[in-house]
Specification:
The chain is α/β, with parallel strands linked by helices and about 300 residues long. The protein has a domain of about 210 residues: Rossmann fold. The chain is about 45% helix and about 20% strand. The protein contains 12 helices and 7 strands. The structure holds S-adenosylmethionine. The site of S-adenosylmethionine has 24 residues, from helix 4.
Length: about 300
């Protein structure tokens, strides 16, 4: 009986210590948040949660290649709905894990949906991280390409890492020309054009070289930055549409009751070029860069 009580008290103390120190990291969060970007909180966390398998596959594939068993603290930048961050917390129960995201809706959803003694979600801006030498690992999935100042965020991530710490990230680097054309074919139709003062055609383009330069400029060493291409398969047209819908920066400008119609039309145009296969699956040939970089123990 005494032993049982001892173990219960030990677990409670462990939770308390985790929470106090995670909270200490979280309360550093008084740094400036990009209020304009935050106000534009177009995310629909349940929609993201049920439609973004491709983004999960990218994170899980990279996380599966590395082990952070000695990490005491891990920061996940752009933690979104929290599923990936929660997976990290589960895999490394002895590490304190903090998921940071600009979107209050995403942070509220993640905090509600994923609870663990070693896990906290906080609001914050990747481009204004307040942490200095705090984390053994910083991860970031499907987020860096969305930032106004990705180079600045990489410098901030470097600063947040302890010497010897690792930055592990994956994000798409080149928008799909076919997808951009499909969006353009629809958003220029008179019934849709009125909603878009500036169109969002997911037409970003970062070169591997530029990303390596950002990492070098921040001070990272042992940089791996490799672009991977894959045939991303969606089990149905609806799944493909919802992934597009969930991640579209300007979905907030469309009336709620018109959203599905807009994205269904985009998918129809896309499928004219890339028809579904015999199982009804949609194929999307897409890319992401995988980054692993180390903050040196000491600058030479
Ligand atoms: C596509 S979701 C990725 C979520 C999760 N990492 C995943 O891979 O499933 C991108 C996330 O980045 C967040 N984000 C965008 N700009 C940000 C910023 N400046 N600072 C922190 N998070 C940001 C968004 O709010 C969103 O939750």
């Amino acid at each position: 009986m005494n032993n049982n009580w001892n173990s219960i008290i030990l677990v409670l103390l462990q939770c308390l210590v985790f929470n106090i120190s995670i909270w200490a990291a979280a309360t550093d969060m008084a740094a400036p948040v990009d209020m304009a970007a935050r106000a534009d909180d177009f995310w629909d966390p349940p929609l993201y949660d049920k439609s973004c398998d491709m983004q999960r596959r990218w994170a899980q594939s990279l996380l599966g290649e590395y082990h952070f068993h000695l990490a005491e603290r891990i920061l996940d930048v752009g933690s979104g709905d929290g599923l990936i961050t929660a997976g990290i917390a589960k895999k490394y129960p002895m590490a304190e894990v903090v998921g940071l995201d600009l979107s209050p809706k995403m942070v509220a959803y993640a905090s509600r949906t994923h609870k663990a003694a070693n896990l906290k979600f906080v609001e914050g801006d990747a481009q204004a991280l307040p942490f200095v030498h705090k984390f053994d690992v910083v991860t970031s999935f499907s987020t860096i390409h969305r930032l106004k100042e990705p180079e600045k965020a990489i410098k901030q991530i470097y600063r947040a890492l302890k010497p010897g710490g690792k930055f592990v990230a994956a994000f798409p680097v080149l928008g799909s020309a076919i997808m951009s054309e499909a969006i353009a074919a629809v958003d220029t139709r008179p019934e849709w054009q009125k909603y878009f003062s500036t169109p969002d055609r997911k037409a970003y383009a970062f070169s591997e070289e530029a990303i390596r330069e950002w990492l070098d400029a921040a001070g990272f060493l042992h940089v791996k930055a490799d672009t991977k291409w894959a045939d991303e398969i969606y089990e149905s047209e609806e799944k493909f549409r919802d992934n597009l819908r969930a991640t579209f920066n300007q979905r907030g400008v469309l009336p709620k009751d018109k959203e599905q119609e807009f994205f269904s039309e985009v998918v129809k145009v896309y499928l004219r070029k890339f028809p579904k296969d015999e199982k009804g699956q949609v194929h999307f040939y897409f890319n992401r860069i995988e980054i692993v970089a180390v903050k040196p123990l000491a600058r030479l």
